[in-house]
Design goal:
Blueprint (H helix, E strand, L loop, with lengths): L16 E3 L2 E6 L5 E3 H14 L3 E4 L5 E6 L4 H10 L7 H6 L2 E3 L8 H11 L13 E4 L13 E6 L2 E6 L4 E4 L5 H13 L9 H5 L11 E2 L10 E3 L2 E5 L4 E3 H11 L3 E4 L4 E5 L20 E3 L14 H7 L7 E4 L11 E8 L2 E8 L7 E4 L1 H8 L1
Helix pairs in contact: 1-2, 1-7
Length: 374
């Protein structure tokens, strides 16, 4: 079996990605927020054109899987009618903006993100996976999420921080986006085929000293499922959201909007914790410590089924678990206490690492693993 190919782009609406079960179409909600009409529209489209569910990504995006090629144009037109797409494909591809879900309409995070949206056309050409985080609350909440350039709260005010740098550059709200554009241009000039993300560039090139002299704050505690000020945070195992269940939840609670997070959770604006098995409502549920990609037969790169095994193992794991259908590791870029990597119908096992690390055991069958290999 040849090594899986890591794509250099993400499956957007203009350029979906073909998987074994059909096209994967990704929608990037503006400000990581879906109004009720947008959310209900996505539920309808997932049932009409996909498998009847929505996938939450670790970049706070939403995907519809299983779309046939003949239906892509109709789905595209429907997404456009909902107002979920940019007219310009280049701007759509650049709209990789993570935003803290706990902000308020009109606060600093909201204002800065709005300005970034308005100035996307000024960004330089960068690899499609390069992204940005706007995280200006009391303490950063997106530190462990994928973003190359971050605007966040530092010890002495707002800072612009390159991913991989412990310190940032002190900025004001008025000049934050100008500084971001300057850093993006600096990154674009140093991108190579082998170094396509900020962390990789900083491993070999130093930032200008004035960009890393402002102290950052320690990140906020990891978000927990449960009631929150102004709403509720619910989980979705593996980021898998049943469209019918989401539609019912919206109707029952009369929600104004739903915010998408990069943690496989949904923030219900003005909502309360639901009583339904369709969502994870127990913060101690072991499934929320497990990452698993769709695996076989849904992905052409995967040689193993993943999520059934992940569900079986979850109650027996005290730490984090990553079950990957192949060596790409799409579901989790960070290390896990245990990582299972699919290869030729079996799994290699890495402890305290990720898919790029050397396994301690190779060629384990699902039966071996369930019998106690880990």
């Amino acid at each position: 079996m040849s090594a899986p190919m890591v794509k250099g782009w993400c499956p957007g609406a203009f350029r979906p990605m073909m998987a074994a079960d059909g096209l994967v179409v990704r929608v990037r909600p503006r400000l990581a927020r879906l109004s009720v009409p947008e959310a209900l529209g996505l539920c309808d489209l997932a049932e009409q054109f996909g498998h009847g569910y929505l996938d939450l990504t670790n970049r706070a995006n939403v995907q519809i899987r299983g779309v046939s090629e003949r239906d892509h144009d109709a789905l595209f037109q429907s997404l456009s009618a909902l107002g979920l797409l940019d007219v310009n494909p280049a701007l759509e591809e650049r709209r990789n903006i993570l935003m803290t879900p706990f902000g308020q309409n009109g606060d600093a995070s909201h204002r800065i993100a709005q300005e970034l949206l308005a100035r996307l056309g000024e960004l330089p050409e960068l690899p499609a996976k390069v992204g940005y985080a706007v995280d200006c609350g009391v303490a950063p909440t997106l530190t462990s999420s994928s973003a190359d350039i971050r605007i966040e709260r530092g010890v002495h005010g707002l800072i612009l921080r390159a991913d991989g740098s412990a310190k940032g550059r002190l900025v004001s709200e008025a000049d934050a986006i100008d500084a971001l554009l300057e850093m993006a241009s600096w990154l674009a000039a140093r991108i190579t085929p082998a170094r396509r993300r900020m962390v990789r560039v900083l491993a070999e090139v130093s930032l200008p000293p004035k960009w890393c002299n402002a102290r950052s704050l320690a990140p906020a505690a990891p978000p927990r499922i449960g009631a929150q000020q102004g709403g509720a945070l619910i989980g979705a195992a593996f980021g898998h959201v049943d469209a019918a269940a989401l539609r019912q939840l919206i109707a029952e609670q009369s929600l104004p909007a739903i915010r998408i997070t990069p943690w496989r959770m949904l923030y219900l604006e003005g909502g309360s914790m639901p009583d339904t098995p369709a969502f994870v409502t127990n913060p101690a549920d072991p499934l929320m410590r497990v990452d698993a990609c769709p695996g076989a037969p849904f992905c052409t790169s995967a040689s193993v089924e993943t999520r059934h095994l992940a569900r079986e193992l979850a109650p027996h794991m005290s730490g984090t678990l990553h079950v990957s259908g192949c060596a790409k590791g799409c579901a989790r870029q960070r290390s896990a206490d245990v990582t299972l990597i699919g290869r030729n119908g079996h799994f290699d096992i890495v402890r305290g690492g990720g898919v790029e690390d050397s396994p301690e055991q190779i060629g384990q069958s699902p039966e071996d693993i369930l019998a106690g290999a880990i």
